[in-house]
Amino acid sequence: MLGAGLLLDSHHVLTCAHLLGGPEVRVRVEAARGYGRIVSSHATVTDDGWIPRLDGDAYWGRIGDLALLRLERPLPAAWATVLHRLAPTRHRGVRLLGFPDHVDSGFELEGHLGGPPGGDGRVQVHPDRHGAVVVPGFSGGAVVDRETGRVIGIVASRVKGEDLGASFMIPVDTMLQHLPQLDPYVRGDSAVDRGLLSEDARRSEDEDVGLAQVLARWLGDVGSAPVEAVRVAPYDHTRTQPLLRAISVATRSMPARDRAERLTDLPPGTIPPVGSLDLAVDATDKTRAAVAERIADRVGVTFAPGETPEDGLRGRPLPLTIAVHGVDRAADPADLVALLGVLAERGSRMLLVFHGDEPAARDAIVARLDFHFRFGAVERELTVCADLARRGLPERLRRVKDNEEPAARSVREAAGTFAVVVRAERAVAALRAGGHQARSAWTADSSAALLADLARAKTLLDRAVDDLDDLIAERDDLRGLLQAAHAGVRGAPGGPDSRDPSQWALDLSDRYIEARDLLWRGPCDVPEARAAVGRYLGALQRKGTR
């Protein structure tokens, strides 16, 4: 078994080039339909379908690794899949499908996307369960978005390392960079509105290198300011050229064959990372609803009947990086900025492109969205901390007592986090109710301090919860051990329910009841329960029971 692939139609299969070894190889493709009939056909690489895995250079990293196969005998077209363009955002839940050795019907792993984009716009995939990582046989397999069920890429490789349980996926947008002939098999809008695609990204002598460096630096540093604003007049070639080139590269929209020709002579620090921009929207003459619908489609938001796309965006994290072109030329600029505030609160970074030269208006919009971004970060961290403090910790303390180290110490330290949570809740409530004046007084330093307090509180709460979970796990193990031992002697000669009048049987019954009550009644005192189970097992051992 070499690996996996995607059946695109009755004659074509997409897979990873490194599985084949070369473009002249003839392989057998088996279409496995669950545990039922397996249909096979030989296949060879199409004339223009070989994109080998190359190490590239210091900037691009590993690139390519795609192969488009043509089947010698057609398979049922009804079995084919459809590829979808979706923003491969951090924390998006995915399923990885592959064919590890001896699992002919296929195997499935669950994970989530994370980490910065790799060379060539690849994306890291981390397993949801420690150790549940891809193995040989997964390369070329589908990466399926768990929320929508859409295929959004293929597994490319595993990250090798002692403790690095992760892999890389190739998103659909990156595939199209290398194999534009895949376009008929792809659904979903492009990451870039048509008017923002660069027809010719070659450097011109008079272009604004400073703007190109600003864009590349901001796109390449996710820890930089959440909002960046630039002015690019529609017919200003010196600034339009570097803007459109940065958008084309960062959104995985520039064909791979054009990179060497268009980018090699650019000044240092002017090329943004591939995949560093999730969406570029031209807001010129567009309504708030139209922009919201465009973003929702890119994210793959599902919403209930009667809800709007914006409703769907409000109810989820949005760790997106978005370029919005023509902010001041939207159908209603103020309405658009209100939508952008929603996105900022949900975690989106934004590059705002203005046409007009009104510095005061730009600065006011940037300040407003910067506030929303910082406010949203505090609110999300507060939600997690409040849930741990008011639900996660008390629920565990109702099951076990915190009377043994390290749980006793960590729970004692976590007790002080309640004051931090209450203080943060009051600050958030005041900001929501206080309007513009209260928000203006809330500086970046004050939000950073509150975030730092919440981060420390979350660390203490997580530690306490983990230590209590260890006690709960031990309690459950002791329950299983006691029940198994008791089942082994129940009904045996001389056992506790054999009507044996001996003192040993009575004593054994008392020891069982003592251990049972400690394990099942009220918050469990784990050290006492551990000792009681030990006494019960010791009594059995002294009697020599099986």
Summarize the helices and strands and which ones pair or pack:
Blueprint: E1 6-7, E2 12-15, E3 26-32, E4 38-51, E5 66-71, E6 83-84, E7 93-98, E8 107-114, E9 123-127, E10 142-145, E11 151-159, E12 166-171, H1 172-178, E13 186-187, H2 209-220, E14 227-231, H3 237-250, H4 256-263, E15 279-282, H5 288-299, H6 309-314, E16 321-325, H7 333-345, E17 349-354, H8 359-397, H9 407-414, H10 417-441, H11 444-489, H12 503-520, H13 526-543
Parallel strand pairs: 6-13, 14-17, 15-16, 16-17
Antiparallel strand pairs: 1-2, 2-5, 3-4, 4-5, 7-8, 7-10, 8-9, 9-12, 10-11, 11-12
Helix pairs in contact: 2-3, 7-8, 8-10, 8-11, 9-11, 10-11, 11-12, 11-13, 12-13
Can you put this structure into words, describing what you see?
This protein is an alpha+beta fold and 546 residues long. Helix content is 41%, strand content 17%. The chain has 13 helices and 17 strands. It has helices at 172-178, 209-220, 237-250, 256-263, 288-299, 309-314, 333-345, 359-397, 407-414, 417-441, 444-489, 503-520, 526-543; strands at residues 6-7, 12-15, 26-32, 38-51, 66-71, 83-84, 93-98, 107-114, 123-127, 142-145, 151-159, 166-171, 186-187, 227-231, 279-282, 321-325, 349-354. Strands 7-8-9-12-11-10 form a six-stranded antiparallel barrel. Helix 12 (503-520) packs antiparallel against helix 13 (526-543). The chain is flat, with a radius of gyration of 30 Å. The chain starts with 5 loop residues before the first strand and ends with a helix. The model has no long low-confidence stretch (mean pLDDT 87).
